[in-house]
Amino acid sequence: xxxxxxxxxxxxxxTYAFESNTSNVAAxxxxxxxxxxxDKVDVSDPSHVRFENELDSFFSxxxxxxxxxxxxxxxxxxxxxxxxxxxxxxxxxxxxQPENVSNLSxxxxxxxxxxxxxxxxxxxxxxxxxVRDGNTFLDLSVRQIEYLNRQYDSDVPLLxxxxxxxxxxxxxxxxxxxxxxxxxxxxxxxxxxxxxxxSLLPVPTDYNDSLDSWYPPGHGDLFESLYASGELDALISxxxxxxFVSNGDNLGATVDLKIxxxxxxxxxxxxxxxxxxxxxxxxxxxxxxxxxxxxLLEVAQVPKEHIDDFKNIRKFKNFNTxxxxxxxxxxxxxxxxxxLAMEIIPNEKTISRKGMDVTVLQLETxxxxxxxxxxxxxxxxxxxxxxxxxxTCSDLLMVKSxxxxxxxxxxxxxxxxxxxxxxxxxxxxxxxxxxxxxRISHIPxxxxxxxxxxxxxxxxxxxxxxxxxVIIVCSDGQKIDIPNGSVLENVVITGNLQILEH
Length: 502
Known about the structure:
alpha/beta, 24% helix, 26% strand, disordered C terminus, EC 2.7.7.9, UDPGP_fam, transferase, nucleotidyltransferase
């Protein structure tokens, strides 16, 4: 199929109105514009073929979005059932089985590395943020695999799926691991055009348009990008059968031989790691049984009248950690047969054009939603320790603290800790890593902490210990300095440093 392209001057406001044949008209307009965009790329440019293929994939996604939007394709809530014991297995069942180290020859590990650190105020890939003892996310991933290979005399490779936002920086960074006992490969996920929400036409007018005209289409793009890059065939030719996939910022996602062995023994083509929900995870996607197959149910798919049911942690006990174990030959089969039709997630963004804010859509998919297309697919409920994401500086404070210690690149919870991890909420002054480091230059002791809230211009001194529930609220225009050596237990501290029993 030839591919796609946009006009040179696309109006941000179109007179196009939805009619009964909306899907066909919009699809036809999109195809014409995308073809023109593809035609602008010099055929001698090595990126030409890849660009055309990406536009083909985008058009398929866009057309399916139009069809589903017009048909109102939604789940029937009455058909949703809890998974049976074969569809969701408890880790306690499989951990009794002996480990087979030889299975490591069949494994490859992939980290989703497409995200930027902008939400935490950083420039460049999120994977280069320092998280513990001078180590970045990427450093810890490399150390984990290197230790695994050294311990078992194996050769498990590490793959990184980058986006156009992170690829250049990542390629430069991984050179420092050339002497390490690890093979690192990286490839790019697709680059899709953003679409104006009102006209449903693509934002970019040229292949080299500004970066905010494009977007990486979510980690559901993993399957096609792995295939298109040639890395899928390369892994299969090496005898690799299983790919362990996880988010690059999940510090709990280490290789688990028990799950690897369980997958091979059960001939499952796909395993999703789940863990128990807490009140902080009520919006997390969960596995359900629907029309006789396992599916991932996301909060965006839930009818408004059933949102409270979905958030009920007694009814939906587990959620998706996005730690996934996937059979590589099954991926090849499904990609080549175009059978991976995952639920589309329309994500609205705002960009600036001609001095005005314009709303755009980016159509994304999630690799967890692919579970229903794989044979023998099921979930495994794992300990909470395998889900330790760092999305905010509140998370960063926890993983830097004495709650954890570092062992061969993996974070381990201090065995003297009692109960679940503390709930930490840091205010806007701590949103960026720079503000966090300036105000918490010395990490407090949190081993006995249950709940921490800090808002406002607050600075912590050296050797501070926080226990129980600690709430520190600084009013606008004021400043709170917590003195060196302070021990705060079950207290509320306000702007004038009055300490009240909580």
